Amino acid sequence: MSQTMQAPVLPQQMTSYLTDGTSLRSWLLTTDHKRIAVLYMLSITAFFFLGGSAAALIRYNLLVPEGAIQSAETYNRLFTMHGVIMVWFFLVPAVPVTLGNFIVPLMLGARDLAFPKINLLSWYLFMIGGVCALYALFAGGVDTGWTFYAPLSSNYAQGHVVAVVAGIFISGFSTIATGLNFIITIHRLRAPGLTWYRLPVFIWSLYATSVIFVLATPVLAITLLLLTFERLFHVGVFDPRLGGDPLLFQHLFWFYSHPAVYIMILPGLGVVSEIVPVFSRKQLFGYKFVVWSSIAIAVIGFFVWGHHMFVSGQSLFASIAFSLLSFLVAVPSAIKVFNWLGTLHKGRIRFDAPMIYALGFIGLFTTGGLTGLFLAALAADVHLHDTYFVIAHFHYIMVGGMVSAYFAALHYWWPKISGRRYPEMIARASALLMFLGFNLTFFPQFILGYLGMPRRYHAYPPEFQVLNVLSSAGATILAAAYLMPLFYLTYSVFRGPRAPANPWAAIGLEWQTPSPPFTKNFAVTPIVTEGPYAYPDPGSDLADV
Amino acid sequence: MKLWLPAAATSAIRIDGLLIGLLAVSFAVLALVFGLMLLYVVRYRHNSPIDRGALSERSFRFEISWTTATLLIFFGLFIWGSRIYVQLFQPPADALKVYVVAKQWMWKVEHAGGQREINALHVPVDTPVELIMTSQDVIHDFFVPAFRVKRDVLPDQYETLWFRADRLGTYHLFCAQFCGTSHSGMIGDVVVMPAKAYADWLTTNGAGDTLADQGKLLFTRYGCAGCHGGHGTVRAPSLDGVYGSPVPLSNGTTIIADDQYIMDSILQPRRDVVASFEPVMPSFSGVIGQDDLVRLVAYIRSLAAEKPQ
């Protein structure tokens, strides 16, 4: 574990991690965190496009009121598949296991994560879980929605509920292992001089995320296990016919799934807090407030689950308490937004693709957060609950926010990961296209929700058609904007110009090693003497432009 | 394209007010965030020669002030939303009671006079209506956008929802909780009628027997009367006057005999056994459907006025 203080790496050992072994075996049995990150990246890219294809089919079906291309059975299976894949096999792992895996040891000045073999095991567990869920989704599917509400999922739904649940259950262990690995790495493997308040916000965010991984995922595992027992052996837990309580399922499920929302967004908040200072060439405004707001979100996030149940039959007093706590958890998010704006103030702002994604993130995340207030306000939620307003709200956070942050991070660290530059102008164009396509897809859904269109409807009354067509048109643009990086980033791996060690002139340990890094990351363990964003005061030195 | 939703109940106007308030706060914050973002990226773009001056030393004051402002606004919205929500849980005592039974994939409505309808609900205008709802199978959700009200409908449990419609017309009824294959087909109409027309509608659709009368027949048919009927209450308590009054239980506690207690006692009789009786009653779970339960409960409610002899 104490690799930080080992002997210097000799020049002949300084081969790029990409060329240090080229056999399939050298990739599949690697314990190098960078190679594991690449394995994860390939896997979640596949899951992302699978989940995205399901979304595209959903949107095309909703072009006409009676449902254009699918039967109700198929439609229900598609949105379940979309939800399951996107939540558990893309959004939850996305930033932590790919960019986190790659960058965390580099940011800490370490040679690897604390437990490299467990890191590899995590990837295998993730893949076993993923294949298990995919088998079920393709071998007939599941029509419960990703929320698996009982007793529909335990005693009424047809299909391979148990197999999907098993897949999620197994991949949960991968998540827990990754979380443990990060927590221990951040505690034990920081370079000399890298004190807690010198850690980049990205590290703090992943730390907060990892704590949720470790504390919340077991509750999901328990819930899914109970669901399986009820479905297979008719043990009455959730179905009133067997003496169970359906609200118990919702309490347990959201006790995991609401913190899981913060699992999905916290790494994104961390990414944006990295990128904004770099491309403003300025210190992050209010570093300690940004750091502690991440911790506050992780802690308060455990006590807001009941806001998913304001119309479920939960007690009146519980609902009022959960509403107050939900408003409270929004405060630290607001603090972050104001601090990013403070960082832009008096900066020297550059508009490279990562920054465009990050600015888009700030706008979309703010919109998503504000519409969250509608759903936290009890009486407003009574009308908007389970309508397209909710769909629009969480897509603004998860897709507008998190997926934008993922692409921001991917572009920002791409030169480090691949050792190549991506084509900058195409990248900027696709970032803008993503912002436009996203808004066209999801903004009309806020209005649809207010007008009362319920979610998960295969067919709908004709007065909702215009807004649905707009949304589907936006989805087409969004799909194009997602496909563009797939092509130009792949192209850049083979044909892109070589990247220097520090293409953005950024401060941060990951930029002090070659692009791509060699297997052991650093020739000599770096010694840290200043904070993560120690850019010169922009007013002081005009020659620095 | 219609961008406004009719407000056809008293609750709708109050909730719309709250939504407008939330919208105003949102637009103000969005204008601030997008405005500052645009201003800064133009003004402080990297090749702009503008003098940046010295950075402010007072970041702590900024942090405290925007955190406090956010907290205060959020607290105001919380109070506003909660006040209306509490009203949504307080039906007037004189509300017209209508029973709703949901099942995959239809809404069955039972009026007190015995009138039945499927995927439709007729209600009089300007009259408080309380729906007492339960489900035969999975969780459903009764949602009327024009009234801005919705409530999950749970299996073997009574959930209530009330509204006072104040505009004549026909409005959408949606199932809002995903309930399986034909979820999107579980829709219907809520018809708000003038009081006179409603009275006529009740007469034309009258089944002859009221819900309670039908329940009395079922009380005999399911064999309930064998133990609970008559005046020989050796094996089971008499049900005369039970409804709405406290019942002493064998575990020493007391429970008010409301709709939920009556339903629970039929489906899970061993859960809350009445003091001084043996737990000998069999469960009728899976034997009596929710339609008939509604009638039995109505019958037992009608016995509330009877004095036990």
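Helices of chain B lie at 10-43, 59-88, 195-204, 211-221, 224-228, 259-267, 290-302.
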